Amino acid sequence: MMARRLLALLIAFATAVSVLGGVPALAQEYSTTYSEFLYQPAPVVPAFAVPGGNFTLYMKGNDLDVKGIEAVSILHGPYQLPILSATTPAGNDLSTVVVGVPDDIAPDDYFLLIKTGKGTLVLPNGLKVFKEWPKTLKIAWVSDTHVTTGAKVGYVCEDYFQSDIYRLEEMCSNPIPLHSVVATYSAYQYWAMNDATILVNTGDEVDTSGDATAYNIIYDITRLTSASGLPIVGIKGNHDDPPTIYTQVIGPRYFYVTIGKFLIIGLDTGGDQGYPTMDQIEWMEKVLEEHKGYIPIVLYHHPYFFNPGWNYLGGVIENLDPSTDWDELKTLLRYSWASEEEVAKRFLEDVVKYNIPLTMSGHIHHDMYWLYTDKNGNRHYFLTLTATGAPDKEPNPPANPSHSPTWYGSNLVIIDENGNVEMPYVSVKIEGNKVKSDFMSVPVPQRFMIFRHETDFGTALKFFNDLDHSVTGPIAVQIPANAEVDPDATNVTYKVIASREIADQYYMLLNVTIPQGVSQLVIDTGKDTEKPAVQIAYLQPSHLKPNSNFVVYFTAQDNLGIRDLYAVIYDSNGNPVKYGKVDRFPAEPSSGKPGDTFYVVQLPGLESGKYRLEIVAEDFYGNKAIITKELDIATSKSPTATSTAGEESGICGPAAVVALAVVPLLLRRRR
C-alpha cells in the first residue's frame, strides 16, 4: 500500500512538473549571483588589465577555494588565467587572490568563469583587457536609467519629449512610447557601437530598490553591452537604496578601479541623505594617497553644486578656496551636501588637494555644468546628466514656459592623462558666469531606439534611427541554439563576426550598420509564418462618454516578436479619426517585465456616433493580425467586440484564454 501511494505521489509530481515546463535541476552548474562569491569585480565594476598584467579578486570570507579562472568572450578565448598568490585575508570578512593575465590574450571585454568549491560563478563584464593602457578615456555616460517592471512611459518624437501623449500627438505624427528598459538598452548599445572606452552609469539604475526583476534586466543589459566590447562601471543612486538587491546582483556600494593612469572612485550618497558619509570621505582620501600621480575621476549620484535660485543650469566659479572662502562657496551647494558642512567642505578640500579634474553625477534629471577653477588655476568639472531612462523630467516644450526643458539623454566625456576634459558632441554657452544651454547631452535614446525581442524561436531587433547619420558598430545578442540571421527579413547591413556558447547561453556578435529611419535585424531558427495573437481585455471607462479620453487594455503576442502595434479608429463612413497629427495611435507596454504580453493604447475622446476600433499587430515577417471593437458613443450599452473575418483576423484560442484570465486582475487594478 505504501509503495502504491509513493508511486502515485511520484506520478502526480511528474505530471505537475510536466505542466510547469520541466524538472528543475537538483544543482545548478553555474551561478550568476556574484555576491555569493565576490565583492569585486562585480557585474558593474570590472577588473581592468593589459596582456602580461594582473588584477585582484576581492572574495567574500576567507574560505573560498578558487580552483581555476577562465576568461572567454564571444570572439576570443577561453584563456586559463594563472593564480599568482595564495588567498590572503584583507579584513572586513574579505580575502584576496592575485590573478595573472596571459601575454597572448586578445584585447576584449571578457566573461570570467570562476570555479570554486561552491560552484562556478559566471561574471559578465568581469575583465576588460586593453592592448595597452589608454592615454585618453572616452567615457560614455548614462544616468538615472530607472529600469522598472512598472508602466512608467514617456513619449518622444524628434527633439520633443512629453509625459502626456495627447500633448505630443498635437505636435507630431509618430509619437513613440519609450519605456525605461528600451531607453536604457538603446543608450548602452549606441555607445558600444561608437568607440567609447568605458560606459559609466551615475546611479538610479532601477526605479525601485526592491524590484529584483528590474535589477536582472539591468544585469542583462550590462551583459550584452559588455559582450559587445564596452565595459560598464556603475554606481548606486537613491532609488537603489536600501542597496540590498543592488549589492546582491550588480555591484558594491562604493569602490575604486584603475585604468592605466586613471583612477575612478565610486561613492554612495545614500537615499534621502544625499551625501557620502565621513567614513567614505576618509576611505577616498586613503585611496587617493595610495594613487598619487593618477588622474582621479569621482562618481556620485547627488550633485555637489546645485543652486537653482542662482542658476538652474550651472555656472563658473573662480578663485575661491574651500579653506578661506567657504561661506561663499557653500551657497552654491545642493541643500543635501550643505546640510552636512563638515563632509561637504572636506570633499571640496580633497578636490583641490588631490587635483580631481572631473566629478560626474545625476539625480536631478537635467543637464548641469559647473566649472570650478581653484586659486592654483586648476580646473575641476562638476558635470550632471539628464535622465537616460526616466520620464520624470521637465518636458520639451516645457510645461511651464519659464522652466528649462530636457529630454532622454546620454553623453560622451573625454579626459586625457593630463586631466584635460571635454564634451565633444555639445557646446556649453556661458554668459556672466552662468550657463545658458538647456541641452548639454546627446539625444540618445531620444532619437535612437532599439526594441529587442527574445524568444525560443529567435531574436529580433527593431531600430529607430532619427539621428542625422547612420550608426555602425558591434552588437552582441543572445540567441537560441542553431539560430541564424535571416537575410530576407533583415534590412540592415551586417556581418556575423562570431557565435559562441558561454555558460549554457548562446551568443552572436555582429557588426551592423543601422541606417536612418526604421529597420530590423532578425536572427531565428526558421521563417515565421504565424500571425500575432491579439485579444482586447476591456476599456476604461467601460461606458464611453462623448469627447472623453479612454484607454484600451489588450494582450498581444507572437512567437518571434511584434514589430508594429497600434490602434486605428474609423468613423461611420469608414474614414480614420485623426487627433492632432496622429491617426495611428501607438500601443504601450503595460510593464517592463521581459515577455510581458499586456499593452494599453490611449485614445482621444470621440463625438457621439458609431465607430470601429481596430488594433493592428504586425510581426517581423509582415504577418498581420487585426481585432476590432464596435463603439457606440451615443448609447449607454456596453460596446460589443467582433473579430474581422478572413485573412487578417487576429483572435486565437490561447490568447483569448490569457486575456480573459487577466481581466479580473485588470479590473482590480482599475478599482
UniProtKB/TrEMBL annotation:
Q: Spell out the SUPFAM superfamilies in the cross-references.
A: Metallo-dependent phosphatases
- Superkingdom is Archaea
MF terms (GO), sorted A to Z? hydrolase activity
* A Pfam family matched in the record: Metallophos
Residues in Calcineurin-like phosphoesterase domain copies: 137-366
Q: Name the InterPro entries for this protein.
A: Calcineurin-like_PHP, CGP_CTERM, Metallo-depent_PP-like, STPP_CPPED1
Query: Which protein is depicted?
Result: Phosphoesterase
